Amino acid sequence: MKFMKLGSRPDTFYTSEAVRSVSSEVSSDLIIQVKGSRYLLHKFPLLSKCLRLQRLFSESTESSSHQLIQLPDFPGGVESFELCAKFCYGITITLSAYNIVPARCAAEYLQMTEDVEKGNLIYKIEVFFNSCILQGWKDSIVTLQSTRAFPLLSEDLGITSRCIESIASKVSTHPSKVSLSHSHSRRVRDDVSCNGAESQRLNQAIKGWWAEDIAELGIELYWRTMIAIKSSGRVPSKLIGDALKIYASRWLPNISPRDGNVYKQEGCDSDADTTSGINSKHRLLLESMVSLLPVEKGAVSCSFLLKLLKASNILNASSSSKMELARRVGLQLEEARASDLLIPSLSKKKDTLYDVDIVLTILEVFMLQGQSPPTSPPRSKLGFERRRSRSAENIDFELQGSRRSSSASHSSKLKVAKLVDGYLQEIARDVNLPLSKFIAVSESIPEFSRLDHDDLYRAIDIYLKAHPDLNKSERKRLCRILDCKKLSMDSCMHAAQNELLPLRVVVQVLFFEQARATMNGGKMTELPSNIKALLAANGIDPSRPTAPLSTTTSIPADDQWSVSGLKSPKSTLRMKLTKDDDLDINGMNPDGIGRSSKFKAFCAIPTRPKRMFSKLMSTNRTPSEKK
């Protein structure tokens, strides 16, 4: 840290009976009162250098030997005034980055300019400020911090802007070429002297050597400094993002939902006002940081963006800040983890634990990124009630159009599908989560992105256990999102024994499991006793052997499936069941299980495989078997 000494006389100021005076052979003739402190001084040394005191003295009507001049609004208080008074007496004073701002403001207030006397205090301070303070890194930061006590005067005198420009110009410079403090310079030299793997590891840290130092600034000065750094265009956006992360960890607390609601809890009014003030301060800090985020994708991690989004919910930040964070998260959603998406919901209108709406917005942004309107069908804002009953041809067409118009890669969509299923497993435990929102989240990604439905099945199972009051219609609606063809062997075994699932889903699982076993030349696994009893209660004989694979098997016209339908990835048994949701409305048993003949015939489909399976098996048989 650099400093400058002015004057050569020893300090002769002393205090007597709460009055500050200076030792002199000449009796004092001037009384100056500064914010409750009284000084007994001399007219000549002060009036000869301070134009303001000259004017106040000339305007005074007092005729006493000791004229009184009051300075109630003196910038910097008694410390700054005494420094200026000592300069007028020629007493040695020391200027540094810690006191140069109040000294400059005090000199400006007293009008200690060159018009009054050559080599006055303002001139000397400006020379020291430009030649020494602005040339040093730490000096510039300390001086900038001290302007917070005098914001208006510092702006008018150009101190704030000059410090910011100095800091911004040094950020893009290698630390070895910047005038740093002794301890900081030694640390940087030690880092630079490292070689090998450690040197490469520290290379990035050396490039961002400035981030920790400017993180000491308040949010207003930090915001202006970062704007200047970004405007220079010489600092990579990745370093800007790293600097913001350091600043957030320094000033933004690790807020929990409980902390965010402190001011809503019962307590004294003073505590509530204090907490509200702290939240307002943090809210301003958060919104300012959002406005500083680099526009480049990947400049900040998705995890950091989601932490900011969680904080914005807790601190009740502006909707524009929330939407901007959601948009940025959506552009790099494949980097997120399921736990990162668990954003607490503090709205009084919602009873859910997590803010599912904002996650739906994030997923919408992810799916729509890069899409052009002509090739993209319109989609609802949150899509709570979106249903997928499109043909295979339409899906193929939309998939091709999506790949052409979206910048989200196929691999990214596969990752996000796993992410969504993991997120569904987390929010499914919320007893207040509406079924419509669970389905909306599950349907927010294209079906091709789910290579298997095991994780989705686990989420559905968790939701059914957490919501035992779902009626039969709601359970059917929930299970329509499940594609049993994409379940693994273990998931099929679990689903076949899951009494929470609708019977139609269990039959569907058994059908595809039998078809898979038949195509692989294997045998169906023995059914659990409870499932056998459930099937038997509906008039289905679970012990009946499977009919031979024959092309002449007779099937009622109403229950036949076309071969093209079996080949279509969308024309699954789930679509057939969707059309037949009302089969069990008539002929209900007291236990609520339907017995209609159409339902029995439908459930008997697994015992009569179709023509395509017969062709597949006939190609695998030996000539002797064919005879």
Automatic annotation (TrEMBL):
Occurrences of domain NPH3 (ranges): 208-516
Biological process annotations from GO: protein ubiquitination
Pathway listed: Protein modification; protein ubiquitination
Domain annotation BTB: ranges: 28-97
Keywords: Ubl conjugation pathway
Domain of life: Eukaryota
Family: Belongs to the NPH3 family.
Protein name per the record: BTB/POZ domain-containing protein
UniProt organism field: Tripterygium wilfordii
